[in-house]
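Document type: protein sequence-to-structure record

Subject area: structural biology

Format: plain text, a pair of labelled lines:
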Amino acid sequence: MSKPANQWLHAHVTASKSRWFWAGCCIALSSLSYVGFAHYSSAYIGYWLKGNEISCWFLLFAGAALLLRFSFAALAGWQADLEGFSIIQKMKSDAINALFSQHHLEPNTAANYVSNLPDKARPYFSQFVFYAMASVIVSTIMLMAFFYTDKVVFVMLLLSLLLIPVQMISVGYGAESIHEKHIHLFLQYASIFQNRLKALAGLQQLGVVPQQKEFLSQKSNELNHATQKVMKIAMLSSSLMEFFITFSIALVAIYLGLSLLGYMPEYFGKKGYDFQKSLFLLMLVPYYYFYLRKFVSAYHDRNRAIAVAETLFPIFNNAPKENNIENNVQDEITEGIRFQNVSFRYRSDGLWVLHELNFELPAKGLVLVKGISGSGKSTLLKLLAGYLQPNDGNICIHTGNEQASDWLKRHSVYMNQFPFLFDGTIADNIQLATPLDKETFQQILTTSQLTEILPKETSVTETVLSHNGIQLSGGQKQLVSFARLLAHLKPIVILDEPTANLDEETSYKIAKQIEALSQSHLVMVASHDAVFQPMALQQINLNRGQQEYENE
């Protein structure tokens, strides 16, 4: 693992020390409560075996101590879960800002980076880090109890504790690379599966579903094979840990049993070894390993988090510093953007999707891209957004030595035909971790018509979305995406079928807002909706990837 990525991962752990501190205090109180439970339970049974008078207070104290043990443990786990959730939400927020500022990934890939990848690191914070802290605290308290009660048992368990890091290092060797490969494979295939699902209706019409089913089955098997490798590492780690624990507990039990029977040398014990003390020690030994078990079982969560850090950290590291880009760009694009003999195909041996396009775009105004489905409209928009680069020809902009695609990525905002919504409130999806003042935010809701189309009981600040906004209709999701665009405007606004899922009245209102936006921005709209034609300053007609002119 690279040092910067490692520091980035640990920075999230140390960001809120107070919650970890209180979780540690709860764990310490929980372990002390268990010591009290073992003490009173063993005393009660010891007195009973000796025939002494038994006090019921021992059972009451033991029950109260056990209740406190579980209560404090539950409170500590709750603190860890909250911290894990908080860290992941912060990580997602930072990822959104970083990806939004640099636009160096395709939208579907970027969505997977933000919505899926950070979640894979959550067990590291809520389990591995928590169990590591709990193991240290509980082991220390238990060893103190062993040292005070029986130094031989103390030495046995201390030696077993020292063997555990050796076991973890041996199992963890090479595990990080396995997890990293699994993460990259997951991201790659997640985009493939998502794209196939979006195109399902078209694939059915083409009659190629069986071939695509076989293709997806092959990719799924490859991902399953990688997942199985990860699970084998986790099982190996747990199995070795169970072997060490079982052997250590058996060794302590044999020592105490032989001491009770008087078979141990005088140095180690004596005949008539106190049963109460033996039972007390035997009750503590399993708890001594309780969090160590969980810690080692969660070791693969650490390796997975490391793989996530290696993948996500470059995104944050390469994110440009914030600056006032929009104010500078308005002057830079006053001369327009020119496409000179631009051609594009997705594979070097594939068909041309766009062929020899020649046109100049104005510095501001609405430009309508027309054409039947499959004519290359979306590809043209992705070229203008900088996501794709021409195979032939040039996109000319007045940016000095800066590459056109880099400039376009930084200075355009793109509304995909298939909007992706992140887990979180509707307001979070619009603001993207950049809080807006109340007046501006309300204006964006009004302009996007979002408050008109959402049910009255739906609150944009309280309604939590999940699974790509499954709670909303296609039109509602589209308006959330449009509101997001309005909250983060840049000089070039690119809209792919912005009214496709809207009713006629809402479509007209949105079209009028887009027309108003074109008074100060260059707005590129790809749409079949006739409402945009009288609004367009310029029209680009595509037919099978070629540009058609009015006189043709």
User: Anything to note?
Assistant: The chain has two domains: 19-317, 325-548. The first strand starts at residue 337 and ends at 344. The longest helix spans residues 209-261.
